[in-house]
Amino acid sequence: MSKVDLNVFEAINCILDDCLDRETILQELFSDDKYYLYSTDLSQFGYKLIHGDFGGEGEGEYCYAVIAFEGKFYKGEYSYYSYNGCDFDGLANSIKEVVPKEVTKTVYV
Predict the structure, then answer these.
(1) Which helix (H) or strand (E) holds 24?
(2) Looking at the whole model, is its pTM more than 0.70?
(3) CA 60 to CA 19: how far, in whole Å?
(4) What is the secondary structure of 45-101 as a DSSP string?
(5) Which of 38, 80, 98, 103 could potentially form a cystine with 34 if both were Cys, beta carbons 3.0 to 4.6 Å apart?
(6) pLDDT of residue 5
(7) What is the spatial distance between Cα 64 and Cα 62, in angstroms, rounded to a whole number?
(8) Structural contact between residues 74 and 67, judged by C-beta atoms closer than 8 angstroms
(9) What is the rounded CA–CA span in Å between residue 58 and residue 72?
(10) Which residues pair with 80 in a beta bridge?
């Protein structure tokens, strides 16, 4: 996994009526709950929320999301706390470029 130049995500501002700050853009992209971008067509950026664990009551603190954006995959991590909801402090510093890798998993039932 490699560190990312976060300016790549600010291209979204070119299609919005109101500019969003970087932190807000990242929160919107890496969360399964959209507020500012709920009706924005991000297909021109190749955006897709691929996979994630978004937290919630009884689901633990650790949250992450993997997104596709402009032909690359990115993983970002944040936290969820029952008294505060999602806490995106540290999200920007956690974002890394990742690649898909197929693995075999054995489970015993």
Answers:
(1) helix 22-30
(2) yes
(3) 33
(4) GT-EEEEEE---TTS-SEEEEEEEETTEEEEEEEEEETTTEEE-TTHHHH-EEE---
(5) 38
(6) 87
(7) 7
(8) yes
(9) 32
(10) 86
Encoded amino acid at 55, one letter: G
Distance CA 62, CA 35 (A): 21
Phi (first) and psi of residue 96, to 5 degrees? -130, 150
Q: Write down the pLDDT at residue 97.
A: 94
Question: Using an 8 Å Cβ cutoff, are 49 and 39 in contact?
Answer: no
Looking up tokens 């603190």, which residue turns up? 61
pLDDT tens for 24-57 read 888 889 988 878 788 788 888 999 999 888 766 6
Q: What is the DSSP letter of 15?
A: G
Element (H, E) at 40: none
Q: CA 77, CA 34: separation in Å to the nearest integer?
A: 17
